[in-house]
Amino acid sequence: MKLLEDKIREDGTVLPGNVLKVDNFLNHQVDTKLMDEVGKEFARLFKDEGVTKVVTVESSGIAPALMAALHLDVPMIFARKHKSLTLTDNLYTASVYSYTKRVSNDISVDKRFLDPNDKILIIDDFLANGQAVSGLLEIAKVANVEVAGIGIVIEKSFQKGREMIEEAGVRLESLARIASLDNETVEFVTD
Ligand code: G4P
Ligand code: NA
Ligand code: NA
């Protein structure tokens, strides 16, 4: 998506450790018009898949997921993060390990909001190692719901997430794909 790539080039900053900082339009302050275009693009890509709900993880996935859900005319669910869960009878849960933060979080979705007739579209802001997406795929499996696909705003193609999703056999659409962040420069995947 050209608009997004241009925005990343203009407003993104590369930090040491292969981290792309985009907190001025995606991860803290949010560019609403850009997010609207992101949502439109996800809706265009997945419109024929019979999506009944869009699912993400709080907090940075919420903005793109909300816009995708709006344009697909379905509800959006954000899985909640917890340090660890005790009472889980009414929840679908999964454990998510973050390599960057070196912590595990449980994520959960209330059982009332997913049923076997649902077909979900998973949306997230970043795909790095794919741990958040793995957690949502696990929740989908336990909830017995079909996964129409995965939509990512910014994929770090040099990390392991894409490979994991391809192995799982799920459709993946990333609006920007970053090949490298070496030398503090953003290189996009060219295909
Ligand atoms: P993974 O889900 O793909 O495995 O991500 P990983 O554990 O590697 O990263 C942990 C968190 O850091 C995730 O956010 C992920 O979206 C974010 N992240 C990974 N690489 C980058 C990057 O280059 N730039 C930015 N800005 N974020 C990155 P999270 O813990 O789920 O937090 P939240 O922001 O959604 O609350
Ligand atoms: Na995220
Ligand atoms: Na994030």
Any overview of this molecule?
With 191 residues, this protein is α/β, with parallel strands linked by helices. It has a single domain (2-7, 19-81, 95-188), classed as Rossmann fold (3-Layer(aba) Sandwich). The protein is built from 5 helices and 10 strands, in the order H-E-E-H-E-H-E-E-E-E-H-E-H-E-E. The chain has helices at residues 2-11, 32-46, 62-72, 131-143, 161-168, and strands at residues 13-15, 19-21, 53-57, 76-82, 91-98, 103-110, 119-127, 146-156, 172-180, 187-188. Strands 5-6-4-3-7-8-9-10 form an 8-stranded mixed sheet, sandwiched between helices. A two-stranded antiparallel sheet has the order 1-2. Helix 2 (32-46) crosses helix 3 (62-72). It binds guanosine-5',3'-tetraphosphate and sodium ion (2 copies). Residues 27, 60, 125-126 line the site of one sodium ion.
Helices, strands, pairings?
Layout: H1 2-11, E1 13-15, E2 19-21, H2 32-46, E3 53-57, H3 62-72, E4 76-82, E5 91-98, E6 103-110, E7 119-127, H4 131-143, E8 146-156, H5 161-168, E9 172-180, E10 187-188
Parallel strand pairs: 3-4, 3-7, 7-8, 8-9
Antiparallel strand pairs: 1-2, 4-6, 5-6, 9-10
Helix pairs in contact: 2-3
Q: Which class best fits the helix and strand makeup? A: alpha/beta
What ions, cofactors and ligands are bound?
guanosine-5',3'-tetraphosphate, sodium ion
Query: Roughly what is the average pLDDT, rounded to an integer?
Result: 96
The radius of gyration over CA amounts to 16 Å
Q: What share of residues are in beta strands?
A: 25-35%
The number of helical segments is 5
CATH topology: Rossmann fold
Shape: globular
Number of strands: 10
